[in-house]
Write a structure and sequence with these properties.
Distance between the termini: 19 Å
Number of strands: 4
Strand order of the largest sheet: 1-4
Number of domains: 2
Number of helices: 13
Largest sheet: 2 strands, antiparallel
Structural class: mainly alpha
């Protein structure tokens, strides 16, 4: 197998990425497709969960081998952003809070300005909260694992940080349009918002996270060599917070547009990413993580080879 690993190692990033995706489809199809068909046929509805979950597990297994054999990573998960144990989850919660607070601010302003009406129903809000949290964990961690873990790492091997940033954000937006043409036409106004979100999540991924020794030294007013390094927790938490808060509003139907302003301001078809106000909010969050990722001391990273 070594000649194969050498061949893959020598390819440019676009070819490596394409070959990885081909291998993923070949390995995952025999598992994911039957699960998708079975779930879609259930009388309870067309809720498909097991198929994408199986796809993520196959992706993780393939990536582990790929990272070790193709890139020679001794600690793949640490390099890709999973490290720190409890510290990882504390950072995730911080990112989650920023995302959820941002969405709450967005709809709070719409209510205050008369652009939306608060609608309360008899729906079980406890169930909606838990469902949203599960979705936030699944989507936030899985998508960030793919886009700001594997894909960003591959791009960083061949391109400058700036070029990798723009390509990653663009591919993240494009990936949300793998759907029927009619759906693409209906949702195209949110493309720039998705691209901005992709850029924001890259800056979140590149935001250093301080290690426990540094935090303890600061608490004791002692000098400590900068030992921060980046983590996937910031991006996964921010992504999860946005997903969770938006889920609460849309599924529970909490805010109904009044029509006081055009949809291109408040969000076309109720999607804040397709409106000026939502883009402005996302721009503010982007500015926070851009600043945090560019002003900190360059972080140390685990050795990849």
């Amino acid at each position: 197998m070594e000649p194969l690993w050498n061949f893959l190692r020598q390819q440019a990033a676009p070819i490596r990425i394409a070959l990885f995706l081909v291998a993923l489809v070949v390995l995952a199809a025999p598992i994911a497709l039957p699960l998708y068909w079975w779930e879609y046929q259930q009388p309870e509805g067309h809720s498909v969960i097991l198929a994408p979950v199986s796809l993520v597990f196959v992706f993780a297994a393939l990536l582990f081998v790929w990272a070790q054999r193709v890139h020679g990573l001794k600690q793949p998960w640490q390099v890709l952003g999973f490290w720190g144990g409890l510290r990882w989850w504390r950072t995730w919660v911080q990112g989650f809070a920023i995302g959820a607070a941002g969405v709450a601010l967005l709809y709070g302003l719409q209510l205050a300005w008369g652009w939306g009406d608060l609608t309360l129903t008899t729906i079980s809000y406890g169930r909606i909260i838990l469902e949203g949290l599960f979705l936030a964990l699944l989507v936030g961690i899985a998508e960030e694992f793919i886009f700001r873990g594997w894909l960003l790492f591959e791009l960083d091997q061949d391109y400058s940080p700036a070029l990798a940033l723009w390509i990653n954000g663009f591919l993240f937006a494009i990936a949300h349009y793998i759907r029927p043409v009619s759906a693409i036409v209906e949702t195209w106004p949110q493309f720039l918002g998705l691209w901005l979100l992709g850029l924001t999540l890259v800056w979140a991924r590149r935001t250093p996270v301080r290690l426990e020794a540094e935090i303890e030294a600061q608490r004791k007013n002692q000098r400590q060599h900068q030992r921060s390094r980046t983590s996937l927790a910031n991006a996964a938490g921010l992504h999860g917070g946005l997903v969770w808060a938006y889920y609460q509003v849309t599924v529970a139907g909490l805010v109904t547009p009044t029509g006081a302003v055009p949809p291109w301001i408040s969000g076309i078809q109720g999607n804040p990413l397709a409106g000026v106000m939502g883009a402005g909010l996302l721009g503010g969050i982007a500015a926070i993580f851009y600043y945090r990722s560019h002003t900190a001391t360059p972080p140390t990273q685990p050795q990849s080879r």
